């Protein structure tokens, strides 16, 4: 496996059309079906079509309203609760969190993970089609990453405004440490986001948590280039609401 660690290498990889998402191993289960039907693991026309199914409902949500709804919620469940409510999805957060455990490779799924995804699809109406997969995808993509962002930001919550703290947290203590891609020739490529966001060629004194850093917003934690995260503003709004509402 090729590992990319500098900011420039990782940025270039995210924009390189010869690098695609790594196809997950086939699995004859609800999890296997879900992975085969979401934008996250798709390419080309299927990716564009499936991505449009997640972008349209997300565009209709107001970040300010998400932020207000998130205040006072638990860091672990805020994203799932707030997004499910805003999108009109009736599902227990525990069902989403269980299904999220093995959604992203390289976690090796267990039969319990397959059953958890089955329960999530059932809660979404039980139809195995792309609109259902898209609704599951939004909740699963949001769940663990937003919870990790809030968890990583909480120790710094008094260092500045929620926006400033969250931006520097994404750079300094990212909720997603690595991304993976596969080259057309089959080579697996790992993008080390922690190293790239602490590249001294881009960030002065990179180990220091500094909310007044002028360029911390250029972090690469929401992806970039060909398939950036469509929920970045939603994640930030929900995380800001939880930070604001957490005890001093
Ligand atoms: C701190 C929280 C979050 C982080 C750091 C994050 C980061 C990312 C990254 C890096 C990707 C691209 C993965 C790749 O190309 O390999 C991605 C994809 C995605 N994210 Fe997020 N995300 C977060 C929260 C959210 C939220 C709250 C939502 C929904 C409201 C969301 C929805 C998605 C979706 C649907 C994709 C797949 C996009 C595609 O394949 O075209 N994410 N996210």
UniProtKB/TrEMBL annotation:
InterPro entries: Cyt_P450, Cyt_P450_sf. This is Cytochrome P450. It comes from Allokutzneria multivorans. Belongs to the cytochrome P450 family. It comes from the Bacteria. Coiled coil: none annotated.
């Amino acid at each position: 496996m090729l590992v990319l660690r500098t900011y420039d290498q990782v940025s270039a990889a995210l924009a390189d059309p010869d690098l695609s998402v790594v196809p997950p191993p086939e699995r004859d289960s609800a999890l296997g079906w879900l992975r085969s039907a979401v934008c996250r693991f798709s390419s080309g026309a299927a990716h564009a079509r499936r991505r449009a199914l997640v972008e349209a409902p997300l565009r209709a949500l107001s970040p300010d309203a998400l932020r207000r709804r998130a205040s006072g919620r638990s860091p672990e469940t805020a994203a799932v609760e707030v997004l499910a409510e805003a999108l009109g999805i009736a599902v227990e957060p525990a069902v989403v969190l269980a299904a999220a455990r093995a959604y992203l490779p390289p976690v090796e799924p267990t039969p319990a993970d397959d059953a958890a995804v089955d329960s999530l699809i059932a809660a979404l109406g039980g139809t195995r089609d792309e609109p259902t997969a898209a609704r599951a995808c939004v909740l699963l993509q949001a769940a663990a990453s937003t919870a990790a962002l809030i968890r990583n930001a909480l120790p710094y919550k008094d260092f500045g405004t929620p926006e400033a703290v969250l931006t520097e947290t994404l750079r300094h203590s990212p909720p997603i440490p690595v991304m993976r891609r596969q080259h057309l020739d089959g080579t697996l490529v790992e993008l080390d986001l922690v190293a790239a966001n602490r590249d001294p060629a881009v960030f002065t004194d990179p180990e220091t948590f500094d909310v007044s850093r002028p360029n911390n917003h250029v972090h690469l934690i929401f992806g970039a280039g060909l398939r950036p995260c469509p929920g970045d503003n939603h994640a930030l709004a929900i995380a800001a609401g939880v930070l604001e509402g957490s005890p001093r």
